[in-house]
Amino acid sequence: MSYYSLKKISYVSVLVFVLAILLFANSIAVGEEHKKNKDKPMFEKYLSPSETDENISIAGGDSYEPNGDLFQTYPIAIGTTYNSYIWDPFDLDVYNINLVAGQNIVISLTSLPADFDILFLGPSPDFPILGLSENLGTASDYINYSVGSTGNYYILVGSGSGTEFSTTDSYGLSVEIVPTAFIDSISPNPAIQGQSVTFNGHGVDGNGIINGHNWRSSIDGQLSSSATVSKANLSPGTHTIYYKVQDNAGVWSSEVSAQLIVNIIGPTGAWNSGGANSWSWDASKIEKGDFDGDGIDDIVALYGYETQREVKAFFFKGNSQGGFSSPVVWWSSGPGNWDWAGSMLTSGDFNEDGKWDLAILYGYSVQRDVRTFVFLSDGSKFKSPTTWFHAGPNNWDWAGSILRSGDFDGDGKTDLVILYGYATQRDVVAFVFPSTGNSFSASELWWQAGAGNWDWSGSKVLSGDFTDDGKDDLAIFYGYGGSQSVIFVTPSTGTRFSSPAIWYNSGPGNWGWASTKVLSGNFDGLGPDDIVGFYNYGNSYSALFTFK
Questions:
Q1: DSSP string of 294-320, one letter each residue
Q2: Chain-centre distance of CA 280, in angstroms?
Q3: Which residues contact 144 (CB under 8 A, 6 or more apart)?
Q4: How many whole angstroms separate alpha carbon 439 and alpha carbon 350?
Q5: Is-contact 449 428, C-beta < 8 A?
Q6: What's phi and psi for 401, nearest 5 deg?
Q7: pLDDT computed for residue 46 by the predictor
Q8: Which of 28, 149, 222, 227 is the most buried (most CB within 10 A)?
């Protein structure tokens, strides 16, 4: 049968023949792909032996004929470009190539004079369809494939529309190993904004050399075209860093990625206890303040020696570089005199002398009694504690108290506030204890939620001048469950707290209350105080957020 007589075979006969072969092979996936492409002559005849290609006159140097079906193929190799022709719409070029399991390849059909497509088939006897590229017009076609098993594979080239051909201009077919990219290191990670970050990567290619690189960031875009690069101008945030390599055949690898965190601030070592068994974190309760009156905030740690029922107040002097001196003892209770676990701390300038003092709400659980002890600073130590408030037996539940301090009445002296919870009634009360300079006045009720309206255990309490009016206010970071958190602010009028207003609402599912530690302060040096949330994402991953 001549090549031209083959073209006269009825469309129906060819289709029936192809379908019969497909059913015999029992390959649904192959059959669907064949039916999809049944109108393309290049796909109608590749399963049957051809008697035509041997009669085609060879023009223009097409030395690969006969290769018109799976029974007459031309062997090709990785790394070589093969130039050939599609003489008329029914011409079909079939190539075979031996591939090895584990190879990642790209099949390229380029320099197209007309709309030609490529079909990629697996080994016999089923010849499964592994890839198809049918870009329109003269756009190049590509198929990427990861080889699962060693064997002979087949590549078919033919007219895409069923009418395209060229007897004067050839196409180019090549198979290349796709290189593999590796990110070796990104350091430091996490980094601080402005810090130089170095990226190191390399590539591996099975049949060539690596001569191209590309780094990019999900935040900052293009970074570099070198294997190693350092960048010091990265934006703060969580970057996804992408890297790929190119071989000498012009083939790019797939991108690999890694995470880089760039923080606005970062930790700097300010003090070290000196190694194992030198300081118990669990036995430390800390407060900040300008305890020596030099204008720089210091740290005081109340350290507990529980077996001796003893505590010591250690003073860490702050310096202008943000560090701290080694701790010195500013006060010691002596053995048997103090229960560390029953101590709740806050600080402030309670006597308005320019030096911050320490206050401890001390609980006597058996008697349901509390005392507020104030440790006035003389600039070099704490004086012996004096009682500034005593509730009396059966009048106060220490465990139901959250202690904070602030100048709530705006008179220049630091006062105390306790958010007190009535668990059985789901009610809370804000009691303020104004400072007179040498004692706290009797508690004043400045705000009450009302029975059934507030869960004390879901409250994290902050104080600060959030309204910038010279009086400190109360803020409550409140958890509703279901990863929903709300910030309520109760502004001070000088004699009471106004009804709480919602200043932030995360919405359901957006913020885990239990995963957040909160602080307040004037962190930007501008106007009202801010709130900072220290958030735990899990897997040793944390972040700071500012609410302002």
A1: SSS-EEEEEEEEGGGTEEEEEEE-B-T
A2: 32
A3: 104, 105, 106, 107, 131, 178
A4: 9
A5: yes
A6: -120, 140
A7: 53
A8: 227
Output the six-digit token pair for 207.
């049949």
| The predicted structure's pLDDT at residue 49 | 52
Q: How far apart are CA 293 and CA 296, in angstroms?
A: 8
Torsion 341-345-350-356 (CA) sign: positive
Contacts of 9 (CB under 8 A, 6+ apart): none
**How far is the C-alpha of 199 from the C-alpha of 220, rounded, in Å?**
14
Beta bridge partner(s), residue 173: 82, 109
Q: What are phi and psi of 146, to 5 degrees?
A: -100, 120
Q: How far apart are CA 292 and CA 314, in angstroms?
A: 13
Cis amide bond preceding 190, omega within 30: yes
pLDDT < 70: residue spans in the chain:
1-62
Task: Specify the DSSP element, H or E, that contains 41.
Answer: helix 41-44
Q: What is the DSSP letter of 539?
A: T
Locus of tokens 């760039």: 262
Nearest CA-CA partner of 347 in 362, 360, 332: 360
CA distances from 335 to 286, 309, 339, 383, 426 (A): 21, 6, 10, 18, 39
- The pLDDT assigned to 420 comes to 96
Query: At residue 273, what is the residue type?
Result: S
Measured CA angle at 87 (ends 83, 90), to 5 deg = 120
For tokens 């009396």, name the residue. 392
Q: Give 292's DSSP letter.
A: T
Structure tokens at 423: 């668990």
Separation between Cα atoms, residue 286 and residue 19, nearest integer Å: 81
Query: What is the DSSP annotation of 332-351?
Result: E--TTS--GGGEEEEEE-TT
Q: HSE-up of 60 (CA within 13 Å, CB side)?
A: 13
Rounded-to-integer distance, Cα 156 and Cα 361, Å:
84
Cβ-based neighbours of 321, under 8 Å, separated by 6 or more: none
Measure the N-to-C terminal CA separation of the chain; round to a whole number of Å. Answer: 85
Q: Is the peptide bond before 528 cis (omega within 30 degrees of 0)?
A: no
Structure tokens at 147: 């080889």
Spatial distance between the Cα atoms of 426 and 334, rounded to a whole number of angstroms: 40
Q: Residue 53: what pLDDT?
A: 45
Backbone angles phi, psi at 441, to 5 degrees: -65, 165
Q: Three-state DSSP class for 540?
A: coil
Q: How far lies 460's CA from each of 47, 53, 170, 201, in Å? A: 74, 84, 75, 46
Tell me phi and psi for residue 514, to 5 degrees.
Answer: -65, -20
Q: Are 232 and 194 in contact (CB under 8 A)?
A: yes
Q: What is the CA radius of gyration of the chain?
A: 39
